[in-house]
Give the backbone structure.
Amino acid sequence: MNRIISLINLKGGVGKTTTAFEMGYLLSTRYKSRVLLIDNDKQGNLSRALGVYQEDTYCGTAKLMGGQKVVPQQTRVEHCDIISANMSLLTATYKNKGQAKGYLQLGGIEDGEGRPYDFIIIDNPPDLGLNVLNALFVTHDVIVPTKIDLWALEGLDIIRDQVQDIRRINHDIRPPKALVTIYRSSPANTAGMEWLRDNGYETFDTVIRYSDKAVENTFCGQALQEYSPRSAAALSYRRLIKEYWESVR
Ligand SMILES: Nc1ncnc2c1ncn2[C@@H]1O[C@H](COP(=O)(O)OP(=O)(O)O)[C@@H](O)[C@H]1O
Ligand SMILES: [Mg+2]
């Protein structure tokens, strides 16, 4: 059986897409797992990062939303496939209001050669639209990338409540776990991390450190692991994946 991970936060710019790409890259290349990435954001940033963005097609995630059978697309990263997104996801979300069971097929989805995936990683937009709720219905692990700055922690309670609600239907979903991203050592960061702990949020021990390299690299087609493997951010992601791997084995 596969393990389905959702990256979610109601804010943009907190490292959701970067985390999805780095986790997918590391699980497939270093941990020899079969990975399926799902771009669940109509902006299509994850699709762009993997070089498979197409503007004028009815995208894979839109088909998923409509309950059509979807065949994942290969990427240049071995054992790492994708279901890509573009603006057509918006129309699909709108058209399928009130019913959308398409994401349930993710439980048994296979690659082009009929093999199941070990991990499915869903990169979500910064909202709780129907496509995000559908993703949560099939998710096991909810990771909340959190950049600690002013108001950064706003909205975390909404996600926690939503996950709690979904638990009545999806008994396998675990409580959300915060991942501090774009971290720079500062009093604000320390205070933010204390706040998370004091308010009962589970957090990863690993924090993802800030790197100029990560800013340069935005959606240029390479994972940070390739572009700048020695950067603090790339190193942080290798630590994160080790921590994650050990938590699900
Ligand atoms: N560890 C990091 N250090 C510095 N910049 C980062 C880091 N992680 C992500 N970024 C940058 O922050 C911006 C937002 O990241 P992104 O992953 O697109 O966030 P989201 O998907 O939550 O909107 C991008 O420009 C990205 O390059
Ligand atoms: Mg994003």
Remarks:
- The chain has one domain: 3-248.
- Strands lie at 3-7, 35-39, 73-74, 80-83, 119-123, 141-147, 177-181, 202-203.
- The longest strand covers residues 141-147.
